[in-house]
Each structure stands twice: as structure tokens, then as C-alpha cells.
Amino acid sequence: MSRRFRATAFALAALLAAVLAAAIADGYGDSVVRGYGMLRPVAVAIHPLRRGEAIDPARAKTALETRRVPVRFVPLGALRSPAEAVGLEPTAVVPPGAYLLASQLRPPGPEEKQLGLAAGRRPVSITVGGATALAAGDDTGSGTVVDVVVTTEPSVGGHGRTFVAAAGVPLLALAPAADGLEETATATLALTRREALRLIAAQSFARQLTLLPGG
């Protein structure tokens, strides 16, 4: 067998492997769409983003990436691409693996005034529903204590689950959500690290996060 023949055979084998891999990938993508619905791009942090550190083009390229996720799993206000975050700064720490939300970002500005947070708590902004009652009662600032309730997506042939993910946490601010939907709001809460990670994770799988006046 000549060298030229072996080289041609190897090239054809590599091409066939590439075609098979592409076919498998396409088939997997189709199965995901059939099982979970249409996909949409979302910006995801692959490295932590610090609070108050402006995101420049270089940082957006190295710390963020675009992934395609079933629409039903995408939280409200999720950015579609890292480019949308350029020129803004996080209002709280964004850990690796978290979706980047519009409510987590703001234009760079003067350092915020001290909020009088208890030791071990940090301000974290999340998108919530059912905040109408709080707003009507003027519970929109520091001093209010709330429970954060998570409602999950219903399972196939079953029901969703509702549970308190964070109880008795201070509400620092409540404002209309950046996505403009009337039924949602951006809540800034004083959370421990454990509470913050739990709620950030919940935003990726839950149908809704709701605030209830705490006791």
C-alpha cells in the first residue's frame, strides 16, 4: 500500500467522521427542541464578575459566553449576548455559570452609600413577580423584611413545587424590572452568600420568584 493511498484513506476517514459528528450534533439539537421547546441565546458568566467593576469589551470576551437554552428555562431579563453588557457594571457579584440579567447591571457611577447591612450580608438584585402588594403598601425600601418564594416549572404529567427559598431577608429596594413587564420588579435584597447562591440558581430553573411580606 503506497503512502499516497494511505494518506487518501486517512483523509476520507477523517471527513466521514466529521460528517457523522455533525449529523449526531444536529440530531441532538433537534431532540432538545422537541423535548423542551425552542432555544434562544443567553449570556452566561464563565468567570466571576465583581460588583461595581465595569465590563469592557475585553472583559466581556473573556468572562462571558453565549449559550442556547430552552426558552422555558430562561429567566426574565436575561441578556442575549455578552455585547449587551459592555459599558455596564454589576450591582452584585455574578458567579460563574449564572445567567446575566438586565436587573443585575447599571451604568457606572459613584459608589453607593453604605446601606447599613448586617455582617455577612451583601446587596443582591433579582427579578421577582407578585410585588404589586408590596408596592401598594409602599414597602419599597430599607427596613422591610420579606420571604422569597420559588415556584418551579411543572414536571411532565405533574405539578410544580412552591417553597420558601429565603426567609426573613431585608428588602433594600424595589423598582420596576428592566424588561418593562408590569407584573415583575427588581428587588434588591440583603442576602447571605448561601441565600444569594440559592436564589441565583433558582432564577435559572424556576417559573417565578415571589416576594411575601415576612414576619
Describe this structure in words.
With 215 residues, the protein is of the alpha+beta class. It has three domains: 1-35; 39-105, Alpha-Beta Complex (Type Iii Antifreeze Protein Isoform Hplc 12), CATH 3.90.1210.10; 118-213, no CATH class. Helices cover 27% and strands 32% of the residues. The chain has a five-stranded antiparallel β-sheet with strand order 5-8-7-6-9. A hairpin with a 7-residue loop joins β7 (162-176) and β8. It is globular.
Percent of residues in beta strands: 25-35%
What is the number of helical segments per DSSP (H or I, 4+ residues)? 4
Roughly what percent helix?
A: 25-40%
Poorly predicted sequence stretches spanning 5 or more consecutive residues = none
Query: How far is the N terminus from the C terminus?
Result: 83 Å
Radius of gyration: 22 Å
Number of domains: 3
Name the descriptors:
single chain, 215 residues, alpha+beta, Type Iii Antifreeze Protein Isoform Hplc 12, 5-stranded antiparallel β-sheet, two-stranded antiparallel sheet, 9 strands
Short synopsis of the structure:
The chain has four helices and nine strands, in the order αβαββββαβββαβ. The chain has 215 residues and is α+β, with helices and mostly antiparallel strands.
